[in-house]
Every structure is written in C-alpha cells, then in structure tokens.
Amino acid sequence: MIDSPAQLIDRIGEFATLGASRIHLRLTDLTDLDHLELIASEVLPQLEDVKPGAPCAC
Known about the structure:
The chain is mainly alpha-helical. It is 40% helix and 0% strand. The protein has two helices and no strands. 7% of the residues are buried.
C-alpha cells in the first residue's frame, strides 16, 4: 500500500529503474477525486525527468 506522494514517487522510480516505460494507477473511488488532484500536483511534477532504465533521482 502507498500512503504518501513520496512513497508513490519512490515506487514509480523503482519501476523506471527496472525499465518500465509506463505504469497504470488504479483509482478505486471515482466519487472522491481529491487523490487524483494530489497525484497531479505532487507526484507528476517530480517524475517529468524520469527515463525508463535510468536511476530515479526522485
């Protein structure tokens, strides 16, 4: 389970280091989109420079 934006960034960085070129996030509560806004504002800006197969500097 991921509990914070920092944990999600770290986890995505692990996948990128392994060569993943895309990931899929599952949104389970479509009535509460605050978590989607949090990902857009806190997580995505940190991942703009992540390249598949490269170490993540997150």
